[in-house]
DNA sequence: CAGTTCGCTGTATGTTCGTACAGTCCTTCG
DNA sequence: CGAAGGACTGTACGAACATACAGCGAACTG
């Protein structure tokens, strides 16, 4: 499942357990998510990780390569969330289980959601991360198809888009609804539902 | 309708017709939309507007006040789009006509859409612009209510959230779908539909 | 136990930023 | 004509930035 022959045990890591390199990457994710890539300085990352700027440069070379590491982490999280679903039952059930795992993973990773929202919705972005997630979704789809578990008449592109919007579309718009409702002094905001129509 | 006693004629303005102050504001909108507020320099705004940095400062004082002017322009566009609908017919029809006008206004204003997406979805944003648009929608709703044209059992907050998501929610997510579909070499992407559920 | 690697620090450098400001041109008005 | 005000330019400056780099100490390795 993971790339490691000796997989890490599923023990929640204490901050002290992490290497400085991992702490830097995690701090970068949190800060990029909160203040954006441009709005985050290498010094801020270093401070948040409890190290000096020099060490950040030492480990990642440039700010851009630090961002690459952050995006690798996100893609890995999606990969693990979907790969842990066994290929048994109907294609529909497997897809639903994958969606559930991704939703659960994102629910406990606010920073990832915020980072994704910033990056994917950015019209200026090169779209690398979105494409990587799309490729992952397509590969998952292909796996079902190879097992003869899907008989959708929709194209791959359309199915992938449907999966992605289902997995993350709602997360992107929900804050807007929440803030609007809160602005009028109400709580218990309604849920956003995103669908694809042809 | 407009604040001007002698309203401007509905003639599309040529760039040369605009004052430098307006050109600066328009350039700022386009650049903020494309590269974000932080990612846009005063020098870039000046160059895009065909003036010097000094003049930008002369007219707007600070970068933040330049952003205020940009947001004023957006709120004015929403105001005019909704105010031009006469209060005749059913409340539902009036609401639909307003939505149509806003959609049309946004369709011809890519920069505004991009700016709104950036600003409203930014979790770090103070939410001023979203609140102004929410207040505008609420005022429009109140207008219908005062005329006895609406009998919704939904709260104001919920109705406003519904209006805003209908007006701009789809515009925010559509680029993601478009890019995903394009990534797989297809054209004719499906449409996003956003709904509120309780 | 010497040698080498590696995590890590502190400082320096060149660039780019927002903003300040002195001054020039041009229009308006008495 | 001459003063005043506003649009506009060009330069300057301090702060903050990403990055480079020399050096230090502890931990491995043979």
Short recap of the structure:
Two copies of one chain form a homodimer. By secondary structure, chain A is mainly alpha-helical.
List keywords for this structure.
homodimer, 198 residues, mainly alpha, 8 helices, 65% helix, globular, DNA-binding
What does the model show?
The structure is a homodimer of 198-residue chains. Chain A is mainly α and 198 residues long. The first copy, chain A, is built from eight helices and one strand, in the order H-H-H-H-H-H-H-H-E. The longest helix of chain A has 28 residues. The radius of gyration of chain A is 19 Å and the shape is globular. Chain A starts with 19 loop residues before the first helix and ends with a strand. Strand 1 of chain A pairs antiparallel with strand 1 of chain B, so a sheet runs across the interface. The structure holds a DNA duplex (30 and 30 nucleotides).
Compute the separation of the termini of chain A in Å: 36 Å
Low-confidence stretches of chain A: 1-8
Helical content of chain A, roughly?
Answer: 55-70%
The SSE string of chain A, one letter per element, is: HHHHHHHHE
Query: How many DSSP-defined strands of chain A?
Result: 1
Q: Number of DSSP helices of chain A?
A: 8
Strand content of chain A: under 5%
**CA radius of gyration of chain A:** 19 Å
Oligomeric state: homodimer
Helix- and strand-based class of chain A? mainly alpha
């Amino acid at each position: 499942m993971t790339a490691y022959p000796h997989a890490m045990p599923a023990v929640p890591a204490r901050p002290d357990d992490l290497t400085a390199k991992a702490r830097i990457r995690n701090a970068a994710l949190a800060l990029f998510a909160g203040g954006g890539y441009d709005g985050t300085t290498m010094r801020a990352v270093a401070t948040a990780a409890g190290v000096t700027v020099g060490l950040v440069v030492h480990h990642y070379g440039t700010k851009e390569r630090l961002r690459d590491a952050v995006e690798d982490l996100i893609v890995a999280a999606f990969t693990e969330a979907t790969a842990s679903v066994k290929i048994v039952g109907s294609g529909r059930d497997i897809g639903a289980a994958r969606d559930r795992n991704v939703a659960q993973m994102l629910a406990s990773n606010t920073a990832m959601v915020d980072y994704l929202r910033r990056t994917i919705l950015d019209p200026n972005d090169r779209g690398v991360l979105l494409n990587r997630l799309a490729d992952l979704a397509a590969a998952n789809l292909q796996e079902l198809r190879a097992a003869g578990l899907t008989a959708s008449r929709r194209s791959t592109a359309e199915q992938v888009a449907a999966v992605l919007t289902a997995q993350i579309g709602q997360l992107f718009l929900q804050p807007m609804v929440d803030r609007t409702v809160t602005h009028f002094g109400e709580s218990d905001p309604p849920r956003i539902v995103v669908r694809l129509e042809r």
